[in-house]
Amino acid sequence: MAEETLRDLTLTDLTAHLEELERARDYARASTSANTRRAYVGDWADFTTWVRAAGRQPLPASAETVALYLSSRAARHSTATLGRRLAAIRAAHRAADQPLPSGAILDRVWAGIRRTHGRPAKAKSALGIEQLREVVAQLPITTKRGLRDRGLLLLGFAAALRRSELAALELSAPEAGPTRLRFVPEGIEIELDRSKADQLGQGAIVAVPTGTVPNLCPVTAVRAWLAEADISQGRVFRSIDRWGVVHGSLSDKTVAEIVKVAVARVGLDPALFAGHSLRSGLATAAAANDAPAQVIMDHMRHARFDTTKRYIQQADRFRKNAARMAGL
């Protein structure tokens, strides 16, 4: 806005204009998730630190500068991390309306790094249905913590929820947030206004039927926890202090820790399991029981079938095996 125009504005006009700018910034920030923005901040800080030490310019950065930076980090970071760093550098250039660093040298260096250091991502182990049964059986049903963890594990598995979704889950109400649980005659419905694979907010409803297997019913487990904790509104799963007093919401990291502590109790290596183990466990178990691929994909809310296919292949690795079918 020109200086002359600013002089002519009343205080009310200027305040309204600043509020409009702030709203525009909020929408711009919403174009990427909060987790992505936090990661990009760290990535950009690492890049600018290296650039200053190298006596180069960070913005706009040349293709050669970015190529040298990636090369300097290739031996100590995964290609997944470096790929995110490259995305962060490009995002910073877009935000500043600067030309993106690109060119043959950067393309060749990045391709060489991926070819030399590329490795499959180390996924956490899926929690199988029998492992889940054993884990749940070891949880005390006489304590709030035991009831909470039982409800969280069973619902997280049955609904294939991400750990962030479990942490944010609220009882359905007009003022509730974007991740809501409501009880229906058939069991539980979970409304998700948006998710990792649904950044534009098309929404989804995940149905969790009342269980038929003793001690593995997520609906019964969640009801028992809510009754014991006297929760009728707000967050479903909450923190509990050492004296058994229920407090506020859980973090997604606490959800992962609950999984790790639970599996360690039955002798499983907690380093191999995390929050995603519940979600992947449901997909793998459903595939092993010949659930149609589309049913699994819909329940998992995958945007691409390739993602679902990995779980199906994992379940069928030995069951539908070429060597076995050959008669060995």
Describe this structure in words.
The longest helix has 21 residues, at 34-54. This protein folds into two domains: 10-117, Tyrosine recombinase, N-terminal domain (DNA polymerase, domain 1), CATH 1.10.150.130; 129-316, Intergrase catalytic core (hpI Integrase, Chain A), CATH 1.10.443. Mean pLDDT is 85; it is low at 1-7. The protein has helices at residues 3-8, 11-29, 34-54, 63-73, 79-95, 104-117, 129-137, 144-158, 163-168, 218-229, 252-265, 276-288, 293-300, 305-316, 322-325, and strands spanning 170-171, 179-184, 187-192, 204-209, 238-240, 246-249. 27% of the residues are buried. It is of the alpha+beta class and 328 residues long. Helix 12 crosses helix 14 (305-316). Helices cover 55% and strands 8% of the residues. The N and C termini lie far apart (77 Å). A hairpin with a 2-residue loop joins strand 2 (179-184) and strand 3. The chain is globular, with a radius of gyration of 25 Å. Strands 1-2-3-4 form a four-stranded mixed beta sheet, with no helix packed on it.
Number of helices: 15
Share of helix, binned? 55-70%
Secondary structural class: alpha+beta
As laid out across the biggest beta sheet, the strand order is 1-2-3-4
CATH class of the largest domain: Mainly Alpha
User: Any idea what the shape is?
Assistant: globular
The averaged pLDDT comes out at 85
The H/E string reads: HHHHHHHHHEEEEHEEHHHHH
Which residues sit in consecutive blocks of at least 5 with pLDDT less than 50?
Answer: 1-7
Per CATH, what is the topology of the largest domain? hpI Integrase, Chain A
Identify the CATH homologous superfamily of the largest domain. Intergrase catalytic core
